[in-house]
Amino acid sequence: xxxxxFFDTTLRDGEQQAGINFSIKEKMMIAKQLEKWxxxxxxxxxxxxxxxxxxxxxxxxxxxxxxxxxALARCVKSDIDRAVEAVKGAKFPQLHVFIATSDIHLKHKxxxxxxxxxxxxxxxxxxxxxxxxxxxFSPEDATRTDRGFLLEAVQTAVDAGATYINxxxxxxxxxxxxxxxxxQFLIANVKSDRDIIFSPHCHDDLGMATANSLAAIKAGAxxxxxxxxxxxxxxxxxxxxxxxxxLHIRKDFYQVQIPIHLEExxxxxxxxxxxxxxxxxxxxxxxxxxxxxxxxxxHQDGVLKNPETYEIISPALVGATGTxxxxxxxxxxxxxxxxxxxxxxxxxxxxxxxxxxQFKALADKRQVVTDHDIRAIVAGTALKEGAHxxxxxxxxxxxxxxxxxxxxxxxxxxxxxxxxSGKGSIDAMFKAIDLAFDxxxxxxxxxxxxxxxxxDAQAQARVTVKNLATGTVFSGKGSDYDVLxxxxxxxxNAYNRIIRENNQVGEASA
Length: 510
Ligand code: KIV
Ligand code: ZN
Fold this sequence. Notes:
Layout: E1 2-3, E2 5-8, H1 24-37, E3 41-45, H2 51-63, E4 68-74, H3 77-87, E5 93-100, H4 103-110, H5 114-131, E6 135-140, H6 147-159, E7 164-169, H7 176-189, E8 197-202, H8 209-218, E9 223-226, H9 240-249, H10 251-254, E10 256-257, H11 265-276, H12 297-305, E11 327-328, H13 333-342, H14 349-365, E12 368-369, H15 371-384, E13 390-399, E14 402-411, E15 414-422, H16 425-437, E16 441-450, E17 459-467, E18 473-480, H17 483-509
Parallel strand pairs: 1-10, 2-3, 2-9, 3-4, 4-5, 5-6, 6-7, 7-8
Antiparallel strand pairs: 11-12, 13-14, 14-15, 16-17, 17-18
The protein binds 3-methyl-2-oxobutanoic acid and zinc ion.
3-methyl-2-oxobutanoic acid binds next to β6.
């Protein structure tokens, strides 16, 4: 049985999904949970892209103890220097260097000839290996690259010192059979006296990212790249939880071992979903709400007689068994910290008191506080971290034109009030928030959903807002019992992210 390494790029390629922008604190929470889930390598970001990305890779590098940390760099020395600086504090640092190899990218994007690309690979992979010994090289758009040239590019990277060769299906174009052939071809023809490990990196444009990743593994790949819940650029990346469970359930076929602690799958998926503000479709494989629900009478009857009649994955295998330690209003701090551990949520001792107060406020209103509620409290707290303004209070008045919203905000050492009128409560509230932040923005989208299906569920709101100064789209998230407060918190959260971006642009140009 071959061992398969799991390379998670939720924090880099996953964050490239429009509207997702994790704060450093959120990235650290996700990185720690990914490590607990068992991934081998975490790609923390693209440090040359922004000061925030640099700082988050550095922060992640400082906290991981078993997983390796890697960072993305183009074949550009300053990118590699930045990535080296960010990962060098890690216990197990790695680098990920890439350049495009397809003719279409060479001609229209890089304006380079094939020989220039080979020279660049040689120079920059060598440069990277001289600084951090474990280097992965990716020929971007590999699946639309001429086979012969792909082999030359990969051989050049291997000769220059790369240990890992990642084959990206950058535009989600390949098919399982074709991709398997590419791996067989490269594995058979790349020459080295070192052990070279190949990996797939698949995008889901044609809905084949998981199938293509599995085909590559079947053909000999020993590392696989992807993201939790399949988040990522355009249609997203291969969903690593799907790959993991497929390799486990069909071990008879794939004949490989995985390092993943499958019982942490739901915890990991939920954390990413909540912090990304991207909900999981109910019919999503492995982690969707309905993945283990049986609706038809015939199926229910079969499952009651023997779950194996219609269930190839047992809920317990992925940690979908529901709450083991139910919390209620009599639960104390100890029960809460136990629950946080059970849900795979990392926290500082100093945070427990604040979380406990919020838990108590919720428990006073409800019989049972669910795991979803606890995750929502933790995510809500993380969202307020480092905020420029926080929302303290909201009041409404009926007026002839509709509603008037009076909002109280808190900023460092000061409290101030803004009020505005609108056709309805949301309109009035968002206008008051616009006044508080005084930035040029466009509201792109606004959604609300319930955290659980019950009438007394918490509402989770998500907005996407465009910073008109930079054109960047930001998502904002908020949750509360009250739909209006959840919505206001989401809008305030998006604004706080814009302020952070504006400050970074200011710092960079200063
Ligand atoms: O999809 C892609 O080609 C990438 C590379 C940077 C590996 O994300
Ligand atoms: Zn990608």
